[in-house]
From TrEMBL:
It comes from Paraglomus occultum. Coiled coil: none annotated. Residues 1-189 form the Protein kinase domain. One of its GO terms (molecular function) is protein kinase activity. PROSITE patterns: PROTEIN_KINASE_DOM (PS50011), PROTEIN_KINASE_TYR (PS00109). Pfam families: Pkinase_fungal (PF17667). PANTHER family: CASEIN KINASE-RELATED. InterPro entries: CK1_Ser-Thr_kinase (IPR050235), Kinase-like_dom_sf (IPR011009), Pkinase_fungal (IPR040976), Prot_kinase_dom (IPR000719), Tyr_kinase_AS (IPR008266). This is 9683_t:CDS:1.
Length: 189
């Protein structure tokens, strides 16, 4: 357990696009390892990923759980990065099960956030969680090219597209997300 400040938050300019891809690949590997041991982080977000000595680390396991228990209207992560399902269920005040796919979708929003230097279309939402969920879905599913105008390094674009395609096919096909496919997204070509 690390008790002193450790690492830095990700920054495209400071860490370069190779460093960003490496950090996200490391985090996806850590998520896979935890999931294989029945552990869900449930708070994948910008604030919980740090970069240290050319590696990415997933920190703050404070709301992590063993298994995938039903959640009764309790925010289990950072709303800006929560999956559309989690955000919607919270708004509807309904019980739901936080899954590994929700964590992977949160990783996608975190990657997008870092690539766009903190600019997300739903960040300045005037409405509540229903607005945030709707804007996430609209931005990723229908208006992704507009969001990508904020990307700080165009080298990240093909990686963002590949990760987006995985998330969208999870929405449309209702298939579990293949974490190995996500890990491969970050392979430097």
């Amino acid at each position: 357990m690390v008790m002193t400040p450790f690492g830095e938050h990700l920054d495209v300019v400071k860490h370069g696009w190779h460093g960003i891809l490496k950090a996200f690949q490391d985090v996806a590997e850590a998520m896979k390892f935890a999931n294989n041991h029945g552990i869900l982080h449930r708070d994948i977000s910008y604030g919980n990923i740090v970069f240290y000595e050319q590696h990415g680390y997933l920190i703050d396991w404070g709301v992590a759980v063993v298994g995938s228990p039903e959640v009764e209207n309790a925010l289990t992560g950072t709303i800006l990065f929560s999956s559309v399902k989690v955000t919607t269920k919270l708004h509807e005040n309904k019980k739901f099960t936080h899954t590994f796919d929700d964590d992977i979708e949160s990783l996608f929003y975190t990657f997008l956030y870092v690539a766009c230097d903190g600019v997300l279309k739903w960040k300045k939402g005037l409405g509540g969680m229903d607005f945030v969920a709707a804007m996430k879905f609209y931005t990723v599913y229908r208006n992704f090219s507009k969001q990508l105008e904020y990307v700080k390094n165009n080298e990240l674009l093909p990686y963002l597209h590949r990760f987006r395609d995985i998330i969208v096919s999870n929405w449309t096909d209702k298939m579990a997300i293949d974490i190995d496919a996500v890990i491969r997204v970050f392979d430097i070509k």
